[in-house]
């Protein structure tokens, strides 16, 4: 504990300039999350447009319309909040806002560099996955509280989808825990100083990538919001600012999952050369973000029964095979 | 090396900027247009331009229900494996063989449950 000065003004200044407070407020905390989510919205639209031989946003700001999402933010903030007649008002407002809070909470666990880490939790990886597990429940809550057909179908799809990807997601990250022998994300990065886990854990990394895209509800697994089928699904009834929160939570999760993939498979902030650790972690995270966005341009949407069947057979089976392979990599193959 | 206190000052100014923006955002929310007497059409649930019929919380197909039941069981199995993976090296073969037997024993009913779940006569 630091000694706080007695008078209220200098005490306030001392709290506000303390390193932890600055990390929460600026980087990797709230401000950077907001800005990065807005930039990722732009990047998503721009890359998808390039894949489909379009141009994408270009008018707002000279630099390829990079301020488009900020303009959208202002536009949505000025829209009227219409809440449907039969909706459960409390949960209807709570669900997307709490989703945004959950997404921001995920970032607090990621070590972007040895210094810029909000909380070095000893059980970081399970806490991250447990936070993530809550989000389909929020989607179901949002769909249920709207009391309208398309949102409810979207919410139930999210529930069923979770049963398909959840267990392979946990089991694929189990290989990393076996290799590192710890749940702590900083220690997992330090364990990769001799070699990134993506090389011995290639199968696990692929399963993790597929299931994490399913968790983020992005194409090819965007069943709960499937725009051509159920018209944005659980987001259909959301007006102005709440729609922004619902959409923003998705992009914050994209950022958080790319950062987690970087942390547990790509060596996190470790990297060669004189460049700072922060550069490496953000560089690798950007590559992962672009990869996930490119999937959106490359694939069509799966059906719910396909996702469930392949989640329970192929992905789960491969995840268990990966655990077996990892065990023999650690212990050594038995000699008969 | 910059003078002492300068980076903190920059951070602090950034924080003030953020707070101002947040305040402006809240003000925008407060003054955002609010319809005092919305018409019933405005507050009606969205149904692709049609007039909404029936209840909002519709029935959903039951054919995926077996997956929910299986999920309740096998999500817990994954938790047990996490406890094992953390202490893998300390446990040695004596701790690992029961885990492998445990997983194998639970995979057999999983295969049978999947076999049943995909049969239309059980929906």
Textual characterization of the structure:
The complex is a heterodimer of chains A (336) and B (123). Chain A is mainly α and 336 residues long. Chain A has one domain. Helices cover 66% and strands 0% of the residues of chain A. Chain A is built from 13 helices and no strands. Chain A has helices at 8-16, 19-25, 30-51, 68-77, 89-107, 124-146, 149-180, 185-191, 202-215, 227-230, 240-265, 277-298, 304-331. In chain A, helix 4 crosses helix 11 (240-265) and helix 6 (124-146) packs antiparallel against helix 7. Chain A starts with 7 loop residues before the first helix and ends in a 5-residue tail after the last helix. Chain B has three helices and no strands. The model of chain B has no long low-confidence stretch (mean pLDDT 75). Chain B has two domains: 1-35; 59-123. Chain B has helices spanning 6-31, 65-86, 88-117. With 123 residues, chain B is mainly alpha-helical. Helices cover 63% and strands 0% of the residues of chain B. Chains A and B meet through helix 6, helix 7 and helix 13 of A and helix 1, helix 2 and helix 3 of B.
